[in-house]
């Protein structure tokens, strides 16, 4: 009788332990599932175009370097100096076009998100601004709202006034944050969070 009672007590202890473990795992899973993603408040209408242009510029640069050795391999009665000039022209042209596209498209903002816990009647304390890296990957720069100000360079709207306050990442890797950014002015004229943000940062209709 005593042996049966002991076995029953052990089963009860194991059952309580199993129930506790199950409840703990369920609570952890619930907390994970309740995690809310950041709120997107801006989408760049030319995001796909900017990405394709960057990819095209990188491809053309690679082709420019790739075909250069074949110019010297072609058996034609052309002096070596002429072949070298032709190869140099191909590399310089592709490099210049790639550099120009990167210079123009690097500040282009594809998306802006803010923390989901921001109240409706308040401005977000920080923004995560998405642009494109040199290889057209998503480049996220997280910066305090007060560290954004109007930029004076052409093809830009914002600048990060204090880069030490900003953090950047490309995928899961840490990267240098972007300091020059461009957003479309026509998307920030209507009443809403983006108009409030642009007014707060001092960016006017002329950007």
Automatic annotation (TrEMBL):
Keywords: Membrane, Transmembrane, Transmembrane helix. The keyword Transmembrane helix applies. It comes from the Eukaryota. The chain crosses the membrane at residues 55-74, 80-104. One of its GO terms (cellular component) is mitochondrial membrane. One of its GO terms (biological process) is mitochondrial proton-transporting ATP synthase complex assembly. The keyword Transmembrane applies. PANTHER family: TRANSMEMBRANE PROTEIN 70, MITOCHONDRIAL (PTHR13281). This is Transmembrane protein.
């Amino acid at each position: 009788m005593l042996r049966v009672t002991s076995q029953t007590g052990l089963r009860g202890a194991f059952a309580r332990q199993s129930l506790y473990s199950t409840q703990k795992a369920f609570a952890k899973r619930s907390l994970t599932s309740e995690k809310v993603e950041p709120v997107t408040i801006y989408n760049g209408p030319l995001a796909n175009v900017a990405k394709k242009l960057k990819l095209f510029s990188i491809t053309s640069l690679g082709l420019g370097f790739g075909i250069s050795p074949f110019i010297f391999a072609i058996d034609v009665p052309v002096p070596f100096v002429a072949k070298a000039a032709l190869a140099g022209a191909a590399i310089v042209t592709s490099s210049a076009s790639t550099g120009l596209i990167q210079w123009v498209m690097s500040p282009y903002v594809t998306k802006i998100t803010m923390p989901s816990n921001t109240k409706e009647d308040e401005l977000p304390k920080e923004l995560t601004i998405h642009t494109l890296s040199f290889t057209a990957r998503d480049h996220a720069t997280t910066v305090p709202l007060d560290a954004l100000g109007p930029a004076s360079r052409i093809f830009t709207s914002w600048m990060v006034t204090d880069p030490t306050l900003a953090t950047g990442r490309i995928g899961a890797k840490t990267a240098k944050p972007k300091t020059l950014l461009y957003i479309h002015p026509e998307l920030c004229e209507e009443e809403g969070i983006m108009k409030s943000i642009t007014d707060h940062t001092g960016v006017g209709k002329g950007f």
